Amino acid sequence: MNRHLLSAGDLSREDALKILDTAEQMATVGDREVKKLPTLRGRTVVNLFYEDSTRTRTSFEVAAKRLSADVINFSAKGSSVSKGESLKDTALTLHAMGADAVVIRHAASGAPHRLTQWLDAVVVNAGDGTHEHPTQALLDAFTMRQRLGRDLDGAKVAIVGDILHSRVARSNVQLLHTLGAHVTLVAPPTLLPRDMQTWPAQVSYDLDAALGDVDVCMMLRVQAERMTASYFPTVREYSRRYGLDGRRLALMPKEAIVMHPGPMVRGMEIAGEVADSSRATIVEQVRNGVSVRMAVLYLLLTQDSTGQGTA
Q1: Is the dihedral of CA 206, 221, 109, 177 positive or negative?
Q2: Would the N or C end of the chain have less CB density within 10 A of its end CB?
Q3: Whole-model pTM above 0.85?
Q4: Which H or E element spans position 37?
Q5: Integer Cα distance of 53 and 71 in angstroms
Q6: Which residues are identified as catalytic?
Q7: Domains 8-132+286-301 and 134-281 agree in fold
Q8: In the Cβ-directed half-sphere of 275, how many Cα atoms lie within 13 Å?
Q9: Would you state the CATH architecture of domain 134-281?
């Protein structure tokens, strides 16, 4: 494995399966009376979040603590960053403090990569701009394997919604392709990236037509906070054409599952009845995020300079 986790595209099939298999073992820790492993005792993990986050930051914090690491949560709000400190100076401060791993979320695409140039610590990308969110893709793949009861070779996955602004979609497409799944992106033309032809995925503008033979339907939130123009006529029109409701759920094969990385906007991209149905994995994705992030931190922090495990 690479020393850092910056992109889902950096993972080979062997790397990805190693993380998913290790996450299976980590999941058993949550069932114990004492939810702790001594694996990373004496190590320091810093959560460096320049954007608001509930699920991801908390998930990484719980993961690190279950591995017995010391955790420092660093928020841009109320810190020297709010006084104008640069990312580089913040990195140098963390270096001086002896951080072993830095988990970073930043509004600028490429910020985690820059951080690796200034730190000796392992860097994990927890979301950078509209670029990538590799651990979200890993926990999504882990959830798919659990629910489908098999590896993802040949699995058919529809990713629906705001593809243009979604780092989750970009990472999922790369990882799912690596794992042998077939991905179809469903969105209005205005919410698709211009470089769509370089993505290893098919494109459809018709949600009803795409749902007939899927194993997984992943709904995405419309990221209005990243939009600088009007990408569709009205919320009602978007929901009518690209929202997953009970009628559309019935179009899917009976064993197909519904996913959402959160946060959800109920009534827009997903109906409440679908989000709360037994076929939705939304709560499972949050729970599985802890196991997957435990696996990532464990594997990255216990490998030597050659990428081989030392523990």
Answers
A1: negative
A2: C
A3: yes
A4: none
A5: 16
A6: 55-56, 83, 105, 133
A7: yes
A8: 18
A9: 3-Layer(aba) Sandwich (3.40)
Q: What are the structural domain ranges in the chain?
A: 8-132+286-301, 134-281
Domain spanning 8-132+286-301, CATH architecture: 3-Layer(aba) Sandwich (3.40)
Residue 5: phi and psi, rounded to 5, are -120, 95
* Distance from C-alpha of 96 to C-alpha of 17, rounded to nearest angstrom: 35
- Residues near 241 by Cβ (< 8 Å), separated by ≥ 6? 188, 207
Count Cβ atoms within 10 A of the Cβ of residue 118 and give its class: 0-12 exposed, 13-18 middle, 19 or more buried.
middle
| Nearest one of 196, 201, 209, 197 to 173, comparing CA atoms | 201
Q: How far apart are CA 87 and CA 50, in angstroms?
A: 10
Q: Which of 152, 154, 132 is nearest to 4 (CA)?
A: 132
Nearest to 299 by CA among 134, 112, 72, 131: 134
Q: What is the dihedral of CA 228, 74, 174, 277, to 10 degrees?
A: -80
- Are 44 and 98 spatial neighbours (Cβ–Cβ below 8 Å)? yes
Dist CA 243 CA 134 (whole Å): 25
Tally Cβ neighbours within 10 Å of residue 156. 18
